[in-house]
Structures are given as C-alpha cells and as structure tokens.
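Q: Here's a chain of 470 amino acids. Please give me its 3D structure as tokens.
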Amino acid sequence: MEANRAAVAAPASTVGRPRVLLVEDDPSVSALLVASLPQFEILARETAEEGLASAEADPFDVVLTDLQLPGFDGLELCRRLTDHLPDLPVIVLTAHGRLDTAVAAIRAGAFDFLVKPPALPSLVIALERAVRDRALREEVRRLRIAARELSPRSDLVGESPPMKRVYELVERVAESEASVLLTGESGTGKEVVARAIHGRSKRQAGPFVAVNCAALPGTLLESELFGHTKGAFTDARAAKTGLFALAGGGTLLLDEIGEVPAELQPKLLRALQERVIRPLGATKEVAIDVRIIAATNVDLQGAMRDKRFREDLYYRLAVIPIELPALRDRGNDVLLLAQHFVDVYAKRMGKPVRGVSPAMAERILAYGWPGNVRELANCIERGVVLTRLEELGVEDLPEKVRDARKPAALMPEGDAGDLVTMEEVERRYIRRVLDAVGGNKTTAAKVLGFDRTTLYRKLERYNLATDERA
C-alpha cells in the first residue's frame, strides 16, 4: 500500500511550468483561467470523478477545484485527494465566502480557500504557495528517507557540493599521517570531521583525544598537553600524563589552535617536528606516536601577518588544509541535518517525533544560521523537547527562526545585459506590491512608505494604471 501510494504521489516534473489540475464544470471559466495563467500548465476536468482519476493517474503540483460540481462536490473531492494523495495541495473555489464553508474546506484538508471569482494576483499567490509547499513536502520526505538510510556510524551528514568536496578530502587524507588543519566558522562541525578522519584512518583503534586550546591559560595548557612531573610547580602534587602521550597510537585534536599563546608555540612546533615532548619538570624527552589535527575559526593568515602566530608552526599544521562551509552555504543540507537531529533526539528522549513540517522546513531554509550546525542541533533538540506532536512545526521554533523570511529577489540574476536602471527597479517593485495587495492603493502606499499623492504620481510616471480598490 505504501509503495503504491508513493508511486501515485510522485511529484510533477521540476522542468517547465508547474502542473495544475483544474476541476471546474463551466468550460468558459476554465478557458479564462487557462488563458490568464500562462505560467502554469493547466489540465481542466469538468467533474470530480474525472478530476480524481486524473490526479491518481498523473503527477500534479496542485489541484484547483470548484466547490459546486456535478456528482460529488469539491469538498468530497478534497477529502478523497487528501486521503489518497496527502502531499498534493488542494485549493477550493466557491461563489459564497461564508465562514462555515471555509471551515468545511479546511476540515476536508484544503490547502487554501478562495471566493469566486478570485482576484488574479491572489490566485497566483495561492497557486505559487501551494506549489512551493508541494515541493517542500517532497524534499522533506526524500531527506527523511535519506537521513534514515544513514548507518548509525555515519558521522558526516549532507549532500551539497561544498560538503561533497569535504568528504572527498576526508577520504583521501584519512589513510595518511599528514597533519590536517580544519578551518571554518564556529559551529560548522570541525570536531565531527576530525573524528571522521580518525575513524577512517589506520589509527581508528587508538584513542581520539580533543583539547580546546582557548579554554586554558598558557601554563595550564602546557601542562595539559605535555604533562608534568611531581613537584614541577607549586600545585603539582603528583605526576600527570599529558594529552600527547594519552593520545598515543591515535589522534590528537588541537581545537581553537589560533588561541595558543605565543610562548607555547615554539614547544608545540618542536613536538610536531621532532615527535618528542618534554613534560614540565622532566629532564628527558619522551617520544610520541600521535597524529595531529588542528582546528580554528581564526584567520591564521592574518594572525601570521600580525606576528601573533608562527609561520613555521602554521605550515607544520596545515599540511592538508580543509575548509568547512557555513551552513547557510550548504543549501538543502539544513533539511537533511534537521531530520538527522530529529531522529537522534527523538530516540534519546523516547518521543515519537518523526520529522519536520513543510512550513517549518521553509522557515529553517530561510534562516541564516549564524551559529551553523551547532545552532541547528540546539534548535531541533529544543523542538523535540517541547512538541506534543509527531512532527515539528513552526510553533516549535525559536522566535528568531520562526520569523525568518527569504528576501524575494526583484529580478533573476543574469549577466550584465540583464542589468536595469534604479528607475526600472522601482517600477517593477511598485508593480509587485500592487499585485500582492490586489491593487489596493492605500495598502500599497503603506507598504511602500509613500503617501497616496506620491504613489499616484509614480503610477502616472511609470504608466502603472490599476483599478481603485481602496
């Protein structure tokens, strides 16, 4: 049953215009809508039975149906489509804008409800929203499957081109003994990548030890890394083995390497060059067998220019440099990661949460994620804790993420031949605002920040005649 449903509910082709199934018993209305909506590929049917058969036979992005139809009505069609094709959005049209009719449509599973005859801009907006919702649902479904196909050992999540380049480097450097320098913004997953390198290396059976070099002052960091003998300093009541030695046979991650004090850098350089360390208070050097991975969100090139970081130490660490992309540059990886974290935290908390809603997916795609993957993980963990449903929704997001919106581009990007004057930009934007508010000049003026006199003057200047609906 599930396999059959998935086959029937396959998305319409992403190549070309979005496909709309129009169910309308008045051929003249259908002809008018087809002519008025050239940006959509519209297939018209006159009865609910024909519409249902077409929806089950071919892929569509959205169904637009009249309420009053011969045979069973638009509400029953909506109910049947929702039952058989739950990811296919249905917009219901009715000649009566009564509240009880709207409630009935929503209860039947309708995506939206419009009064006939709908204003063309409002209809276009509703159709575009439905198409976007359909695409998001399909992407969420696909990524949910992809996330659950990851093995429990899978440590790298993502399929964007920037991350594929990282994966390729990880696989290539894992078997070597070369030092690796991981760079990128805070929260991009540098320790996760370091563990992935260790887990794929010949040293995977050995320990993986991580130290945050920014968390300790110079003297304590030196003791932490190299160890000390009893009595080496005032509080050294017993000898201590350093992390270089504890990581023997494995990998040592020097996180926040850019914060290592200048006086400790020469000792660190010697350990990397000579593969020996001298614990504080000791008279003999001790050989070490450890692979070094360093990580930083600091611009080490700039630090070298400012004489805050040794150039020779940098080149010893950065034999293989790997830059991790920010989450905002990873496209739909944010959805795949969100699903991954839902699975992790739902299992940890014993809650039946299975994924995120399309509306939530749209918001997390729009948000910039300044805290990167770490912030996303925190956001999803919070949502799993708070939700009482099986799917995380917009209401489960922090306010700053909930209010995120992608800025709409005024025009598609192109080459220099597509560039226009600021006057043309203003003309197009005024036209867009007017369309969005159904031609209401009073509302448009408020949105644009103009008084009505200024708006009328610009309308005349740009020849943007519209019907007065104020």
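Q: Can you summarize the key feature?
A: The chain has four domains: 2-147, 161-323, 328-402, 416-462.
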